[in-house]
Amino acid sequence: MKQPFEQAVKRHGETVLRVCRGLLGPGPDADDAWSETFLAALQSWPGLPEDTNAEAWLVRVARRKAIDITRARARHAIPADDLPEQASTLGSPGGDEYGVWAAVGALPERQRLALAYHYLGGLPHAETAELIGGSTDAVRRAAADGIKSLRRTYHAGEHTRGASR
User: Fold this and answer.
1) Which pLDDT tens digit goes with each residue over 139-160?
2) What secondary structure does DSSP assign to 67-103, as a single string?
3) Helix axes 125-132, 54-75, angle to 10 degrees
């Protein structure tokens, strides 16, 4: 595990950003959660045990940072007349020309979280169940239902090239 921190950022940065986007949607909040994740990780990096799974640990840190941002959203007004910042394409090469992030964001929360942690973050269903609560089977079902919903959305042709960004 004792790899240099910079290598961990390069190796796991895209995975962490995908998780942040899955939890918060595309845009500056996900980018902020990504930055906060690696700032916190940098502080804790020297003291991590040798056998730590860096990717899983970073995904858990990202989850906590996403929760912090979600809580902050509820406490602060967001100005509506300002244009949003340009979202990073890191972790989503080519942007979101098919509206995938919007479709994932429209899923029910449990399905979205199951997809984000399992498919985007690479965590096993058992670890995902620990994070979001419930049994491994329930999380597996939520992830399967989310994938089924996305397939139905795209097979029905609701999202066409360039439809939403």
Assistant:
1) 999 999 999 999 888 776 655 4
2) HHHHHHHHHS---SSSPPPPPP-TTSTT-STT-HHHH
3) 30
